[in-house]
Amino acid sequence: MTMPFQPAAFPYARPRRLRSQPWVRRLVAETTLTPADLIWPLIVHDGAEDRQPVASMPGVFRLSPKEAAKAAVEARDLGIPMVALFPNVNDGLKDNVATAATDPDGLIPDCIRAIKDAAPEIGVMTDVALDCYTDHGHDGVLEDGRIVNDPTLERLAEQAFIHAHAGADAVAPSDMMDGRVQAIREALEANALSDTLIISYAAKYASAFYGPYRDAVGSSKSLTGDKKTYQMDFANAEEALREVAMDLSEGADALIVKPGLPYLDIVRLVSQTFKVPTFAYQVSGEYAMMQAAFANGWLDPDRAILESLHAFKRAGASGVISYFAPQAARMMG
Ligand code: PBG
């Protein structure tokens, strides 16, 4: 004898009601993404050309200070609150202690001033780290084959001072030395720059996804070895909490988790634990992967870009540093 099957007459709970029309989807959306959530990273250079393409990052150009100022105006017009500067300096300027990193008339101070002239209402954030200026491509000073922590701190503090003095609104240490936030905070306080934000790359992992960036800033050809003695091990999550707690106690105002999409668990953990503005960095390798898929017609750019950026908001990020920032802001506009 077969069992009579009694299907329910109808489901009572129908989550699809809340998805049935665009207006209701908008009404119940738990998170939103707007241009105000974006930070646009700009690669700047001291070369002769105004714009120089970066091979591994289609759509990204190394910009002269003049072009960087134009980009800042574009950011302002798109409603993007801040740009972040990363330098590609001439190889001839590079040495072991990153002398060029603290030149008050160097590339980054030049760009800060050009941007502040053209679009004073745009926030300018700078990268504090030595790798773009060292002949070995590491973020710190190299002695007997080791990256030495404390001598590096002095260099970073001076670099942050130079940037803030030139008008940077936020300095963002990405070097992962111990105690760098405190060293930078003390230097800023001592030099009447106490309003400068420190947005710390508190949880920064040693990652393969930085490859295209190192090509963009010109450090890949010189980098010897890897950065595993200072950047975090991708096996670890709880260590991120310790790094963040330290940076906050040393005077950081906001945090960055880096890379982005592969580290959404860390974004969630850090933002929920500390309730401090937390930014995610959708790094160069993530950008390159997506551009490669777009070029092949394998992914729809508009949909994939907005979905990837929105994921960071859902994970708890206050905003996203992304090379897609202008393109995404245009799509939202
Ligand atoms: C280094 C720095 C890196 C990035 C920003 N600052 C790379 C590294 O640590 O080697 C990566 C950014 C990106 O990949 O988009 N100070």
From TrEMBL:
Keywords: Heme biosynthesis, Lyase, Magnesium, Metal-binding, Porphyrin biosynthesis. SUPFAM superfamilies: Aldolase (SSF51569). The active site is at residues 204, 258. One of its GO terms (molecular function) is zinc ion binding. GO terms for biological process: protoporphyrinogen IX biosynthetic process. It catalyses: 2 5-aminolevulinate = porphobilinogen + 2 H2O + H(+). Pfam families: ALAD. Belongs to the ALAD family. This is Delta-aminolevulinic acid dehydratase.
